[in-house]
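Shipment paperwork, digital attachment
Item: protein structure file
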Amino acid sequence: MADLIEYKCPCCDGKIEFNASEQKMVCPFCGTAFDVETLQNYDSVLNEQAPESEMEWSETGGSDWEQGEAEGLRVYQCQSCGGQVIADETTAASKCPYCDNAVIMTGQFSGDLKPDLVIPFKLDKEAAKAALLKHMEGKPLLPKIFKSDNHIDEIKGVYVPVWLFDAVADAQFRYRAKKVRTWNDQQYAYTETKHFSVSRAGCISFSDVPVDGSAKMDDTLMESLEPFNSKEAVPFQTAYLSGYMADRYDVDAEASVERANERIKRNTRQEFAKTVQGYQSFDIEHESIRLRDAKTKYALYPVWLLNTSWNGQKYTFAMNGQTGKFVGDLPANKSKAWAIFFAVTAAVTVLAYLIGMMLQ
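Attachment content:
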């Protein structure tokens, strides 16, 4: 007995059958008709064995320290969050740059990988202070304590460990696209919907896709400080740590791959979607993203950090130590907020009353 071949409607996924009177394949659910040749071509495209996505990384960043290279480095450990920071022997590290609690020196640095690259600080603490003050300008609901010098002076410069991912992404996409046309006559309103299968293929090169290697540094906060100009990165030397602290990475390259893959996938989808034009809407029906020439580097990125608290809540502010970009959510004084709300409400009520009186 021969096998029965079933076709599904590209529009609604319903089972379609051959209509002898129309000599076409017709969907009984949505009423769409197809000629047999077009449907066979579409079915063959769907059955093509497109490669599955593959996001593998072969090379890892970082290198071993040379003998005596790290002798001048000291390790400080936070007694609250347990984090470790590294600084040279001349740096007075008394507080954790992430949670603002006390740190103590635990001994000379050893182990871990040596960074491949470092972006040196281009902006000093005074620039960070000025950026914070500017960030607070025009904020009437900001508590006064945030404008005190005591908090401004607690800004700390820290090198954040970052894994940089380079790769070429070979991608194939198939989209289900739609065109809709409407018109009217004296009796009826008409809607014509056309469905299309759209294919795209190509490659995109990615360079220095960053993923921070610190579990204590919020990924969203670090990404909001981007972009860093990786072209200004230089080969790492311990001299760049003089006067600053460097976070000791606790998320290795292998654990960072998933986030790097998501960033690469998201950007690949966005770039290929830009090429699908002339349709009212479209959705991805199938995608394949495969990496080649994939490698990883280990770098340190400069960040100014400020931790402070208000009403029992912790607030973290950060500034890109290379570009000066400043981010962070400011707290609001609720009593001021309610006072302004009632003042505005009262003003609106009085204005409405006066307008009503004038119209009588």
